[in-house]
Amino acid sequence: MKQKFVILLIFTFAVLSIIGCEKLTSSIVDSVEETDIPTKDMPETYAIALVQQAIDKYQTEGAEATAAFYHDPANVDGQWYVFITDKDDIFVAHPLAQHFLGKDIKETDSIDGTPLGKNIAMATEDGLWTDYLWPNPETNKLEIKRTWSRRYDGYIFSTGYYVPWTPDPSTVVKATKDNPEAFTREIVLKAIARYEAIGIEATATYYNDKANIDGQWYVFITGENDSFVAHAPRPDFIGTDLKDVIGEDGTPVGENIAKATSTGLWVEYMWPNPENMMEELKRTWAIRHDGYLFGSGYYEPSIDDSDQEMN
């Protein structure tokens, strides 16, 4: 009897030891798995994991529920958000650009005009990194976004992170005046780069100097409450509200420009050309950055002017 008791006791201790070891091993594995989960301190691996998470949701919940989830602005986490296009490369989810819904991603350009959408659309099942200039929703500044995209079941799932954009202002403008749209966009970006380098006070002083009007081109800037801080041709505008500016034909020029967002906006209106002081059609590109609005534009000759040149 005593021998049976001893054997039973040994068996019990053995079982408990095995169970204890299993729990210890399980705890160690769980700990390792938790450690291996990427964090925001590892942005590349975190981006890859977020895209995989979106694909997993698509697999379990379907396209409609997944698109609805990621299109909801409530699911933006600081600088992190997922956007999705369907099998035809049409946006079905973008929480920070609701107007992109239904638009072909290949028609989307970067802030500096590079074809970011066409680049992202090249993503395969193996994934693709794409770098481009885009506003960071966390800082409200233009920064370089590194986006990870994977195509799965025809859909593209993407997310990315931001790194500071700190160019030398003198290197920003690469276009020539023969391409006025690109030139205009780049001199606005040059003004933003100057602001990042020397601050708003020095930047406003620079662009308020009439010596820095380049033919028909000049930069204007508004600050808090859309009040002008720089406008070389119209120093009387300084301190006034952009939204109060009315064109000679009664067009609410200022209100239209003030609709600009962090992705930029083109606005057309009649305005005096500083080169000849004639009322001409002006195409202005304006963009918001760090609470300020930066804008510039170019003029298109009137029909009468064109006829005179032909004669």
Offer a concise description of the structure.
The protein is of the alpha+beta class.
Describe the structure.
With 311 residues, this protein is an alpha+beta fold. The radius of gyration is 28 Å and the shape is elongated. It has two domains: 43-164, Beta-Lactamase; 169-303, Beta-Lactamase, CATH 3.30.450. It is built from eight helices and ten strands.
List the helices and strands and how they pair.
Elements: H1 2-36, H2 43-61, H3 63-71, E1 83-85, E2 91-93, H4 116-120, E3 128-136, E4 141-152, E5 155-164, H5 180-198, H6 200-208, E6 220-222, E7 228-231, H7 253-257, E8 265-272, E9 279-289, E10 292-300, H8 303-310
Antiparallel strand pairs: 1-2, 1-5, 3-4, 4-5, 6-7, 6-10, 8-9, 9-10
Helix pairs in contact: 2-3, 5-6
Estimated share of beta-strand residues: 15-25%
SSE pattern, N- to C-terminal: HHHEEHEEEHHEEHEEEH
Sheet/helix structural class: alpha+beta
**Rounded radius of gyration (Å):** 28 Å
- What's the CATH superfamily of the largest domain, by name? PAS domain
**Cα-to-Cα separation, first versus last residue:** 125 Å
CATH classification class of the largest domain: Alpha Beta
Low-confidence stretches: 1-35, 305-311
Helix count, per DSSP?
Answer: 8
Please estimate the helix content: 25-40%
Strand order of the largest sheet: 2-1-5-4-3
Mean pLDDT: 89
Number of domains: 2
Main sheet makeup = 5 strands, antiparallel
Number of strands: 10
| CATH architecture annotation of the largest domain | 2-Layer Sandwich
Question: Which descriptor suits the 3D outline?
Answer: elongated
CATH fold-level name of the largest domain: Beta-Lactamase
